[in-house]
Here is the input.
Amino acid sequence: MTSRAILVTGSSRGLGRAIATRFAASGDRVAVHHRDSASHAESLVASLPGEGHVVVRADMADAPAVRAMVDEAAAALGGLDVLVNNAGIYGPVDRPHPVFGLDYEQWQQMWRQTLDINLFGAANACWAAAQHMRERGGRIVNVTSRGAFRGEPEQPAYGASKAGMNSMSQSLAVALAPYGIAVAAVAPGYIETDMTTEHLKSERGAAIRAQSPYNRVAQPDEIAAAVHWLASPEAQWASGAIVDLNGASYLRN
Here is the structure.
């Protein structure tokens, strides 16, 4: 397979790191994005197999910065073939935002922060990436969550942001197909990453694992494998799909 140009947002650690590593192992050139973890991003790039990998930075809540970051990645990689929207936030275990628990200003702050990064940041990255893919085709894979379907009563902004990403993915799959751009999403459950460590180590950890009949949560490499396939040339017919990856912890009707 010809080496492709890949941008993975939020890839300095956790799931994004596993995704970036998977693409590099296939011979692709990867732009590793981070917001404030330059040392992690640089160490990852240094460890990736192959050549031509780069580090790019942007706050996903900053619209001009997102566009500049995507353009920088495309310039450094010689174009852009795949965008993986992985960057996102999930409220800390000690800061849930149920309806009855925050004052009105705190409620607005949590929703604005979560949507700015998880949904608007991803949407802006899609727009910017599509400009580079318009003449060459490409793949966009959005990392959403099972929370988009089952609801997140303690973190409603997170669930809503991921539901929005699912809808966006399907809308863009239709809009961008004439340009040879396929768009799909993966909707994982809990993954063992640093973002979920405090949840898994809390008193709720055993209950979280028990949600799956396998009595565990996903490993990053398991999700990365699905993302890698959805971004492959063979997966064009999966455009518009939302792939559930939750170990049977939540089953949609």
In short: The chain has a mean pLDDT of 95.
